[in-house]
Every structure is written in C-alpha cells, then in structure tokens.
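Hello,

I think I submitted the aspartic acid job twice by accident. Can you confirm which output corresponds to this input? Input:
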Amino acid sequence: MRVYKFGGASVKDAAGVRNLERIVRLAINDNKTDGLMVVVSAMGKTTNALERVVEFLDAGKEEQALQQWVDIIDYHVAIMKELGLTPGTDIRLQGEIPFDPTLSHDENYDQVVSLGEIMSTQIIAVYLLKQGLSVEWWNMPKLLRTDDTWREAKVDNETSAAVIRAGWERTNRPQIVIAQGFIGGTKDGRRTTLGREGSDYTAALIGNYLDAQSVTIWKDVPGILNADPRIEPNTVLIPSLRYQDAVELSYSGAQIIHPKTIRPLENKQIPLFVKPFGDPQASGSKIAPDGVGPIDVPVYIWRKNQILITMRAKDFAFVLEESLSEIFDIIHRNRLKVSLIQSSAVTISVCVDNTRFVPAAIEELKEHFNVSYNDRLSLLTIRGTTPDILNRAKDGKTIMLSQTTRRTARLVVKE
Ligand code: ASP
Ligand code: MG
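Support: Only one job matched these inputs. Its output is below.
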C-alpha cells in the first residue's frame, strides 16, 4: 500500500480538492498499489484561525471568537458548495465551539484546533464518494492513541499500530482511506494534537505501521530545494537524498518536512517522496534507503525566530563542568528546542526556537545563573560551504555567533 499526504495549501479551495481527486485516481489506476491511505491537513490556514478562536475565548472575547468561528465555518461551507455538496445533508459541521472554561488552555486548544482536520477530511471523503470512488473515512482520535500531553501529544506506537493494522485489514482493497493528519486521541477519547505541522509525522507513522511501499508528501514546491525560493533567487532541486540528510535539513529549519517524519520511515526503510501537487507526474525528490550519495550542492537553511540565551556562573565556578546537566534538564523540562550550543570556560550559550515556553525557562535559569539573551535572530545553516560561499553569505549581515566546520557553517544572524 502507499501513503499520500496533502498539506493545507494543497486543499485550500475546491480546485485543490479536485486536484487531490486527480492525483488519487492516478495512483489507483496504475494498479501498482494495493490501497491508498490519504492523510490530510486542515484546509488552507484553518489551523491558525482555530488557534485564534481559542485565544479569543481565553481572553474572554466571546464575540470575536464567535465571529472567527463563523468565518471558519463559512469558508468550509463555500468549498462544499463549490464541490456540489450540500451542507447539513451531506456533512453536518460542528455547530458549537467545543470549549470548556473549566479545562486548561492546552486541553481546550486540542479540542478546538483538531476540528480543522476533521472538517477537511469529511469534505474530501464525501466528495470522493460522490465521484464514485470507494472511500472510507477514518477518525484518527479513535485510532492514533496518544498520551495527554496537550498540543504535543506523544504517540503510543504499540496500541496505534495494532488498531490501525486491524482497521486496514478490515477494509476492502484496492481502496482509499481518508484520515486526518496531526491529530490523535487519548485512552478516554479526548482529541489531541501532535504539534504544529504534524501531518507529515502522521503519514510516516501510518507508513511504518502498514509497511507502506512508499510515502509521498504533496507540496506546493517542485520537491526539496537547496534553498528557500522565497529568499534565494537561484534554487536547484535535490533529486535524491539520504535519510540522515533529510533529518539534518529539517532539524536545521528547512520547512519541507516535519523533523519527526524520518525516523518511522528509516526504521522500516520506506522511501519518502516529496512531489509538487501541481504536477503529479514530476519526479520530485526521493529520500531513500540506499544508492544515494551525499548532496552535492550547497544547501541554505534558515531557521527563524531564534533566541540566543547565554548563561554565566554566578560565582565564577566552571559552568561547563558543574552545571551542564542542570542547564539541559531545565531546557528539556521547559520543552525548549535547541538549535545550536556554544560554550566557553565560564559561559554556555544556546540558540533555541523562541516559543511560548521560553520566558518560564529563562526565569528558572535565572535562579542559578546570570542570564542574558538576544531575540529576533535567525539561524542560517549552510551545508557544503566553501570559504567563498561563507563570505558571500556573511555579507551585509550582523552575525551574533558563528560555528564552522570544514563543510558546514552555522550563523546566528540578526533578523
Ligand atoms: N494543520 C496542522 C498545522 O497547520 C497540521 C499540518 O498542517 O501538518 O499545523
Ligand atoms: Mg499545514
């Protein structure tokens, strides 16, 4: 079987859904597949809009929350109508916002934000059915079992694999299953989310559980490029790369695939394709187990919204020797994502994503160290660099910190 994943941009309107149908038909017509699992994100920018609903409700701004909610529903209703579906008959969308003021912000977040994927998959499944395809809609909160770490739920692979395998065995083949990316559920039936942009990860997990022959992520770019085309005018496509390269690229901040995507695939040596949804016959990029050499062009990766935190010992003790485990314990417990580390005898600096968790972490670090920080930074990683390339990259930028090895340069730059 194969797994296809469609992101929000690919299903942002009715034309996108029709294009998905075209791609799905190509897959089942070429007879090479014993079934297709289609993992879908929320339509367009729905996840951001749902986040705003929760924020408004938390701030007690009920009217604004309701307006935002109505806009989201209207957006989906418009797409349904354009696809020839009848709202209320073909699909009944959630009427009320599932917000419970007695629950924590993060738990409410998951109950509300997960609806984006529920709506997109319902619309797509019913549409494909009406086009005569044999389709099953899967409700991932009942199938992908997670713990209750709201907004960043950890997947229970053993339970999920067993449930999903059994579900797949029951379906008639060859056929199509439509499932939500990004969301799962707890033992007692609460919806959870796996972290923003987590649909790729869902696709990889399902690929792993069902021993897929391949996983394909359909995107609005030709494949994996050596730089972000919005920043660099001359980009080239990387036709094939190794798992380790893909991990490094996504860890460095390349927004092409979610960093957690590779491991479940690598475990089972399943190839991952990244292809343009606008040109399904194009070869795109292949991340593959073997026969692939290192990338042979310089690769530029920006990781935005970084903060550089520097810790200095309060009493001139050697920070490194005595405090490393303490520092990293605080960082880990506060869910900071470290992108770079630099140390000297008495200081240690970490560059981390500037998330909502940073202020609390800094407070905790301040109890033990003198802490200073710089925000509004970006981390530029250049793989396959040369002195020449590096000089050009540094030109005109304010560099806060740089780390270079023979082939890789990492620059922390003011935004
Ligand atoms: N819809 C979710 C998000 O926008 C998950 C995803 O797109 O992968 O973060
Ligand atoms: Mg998305």
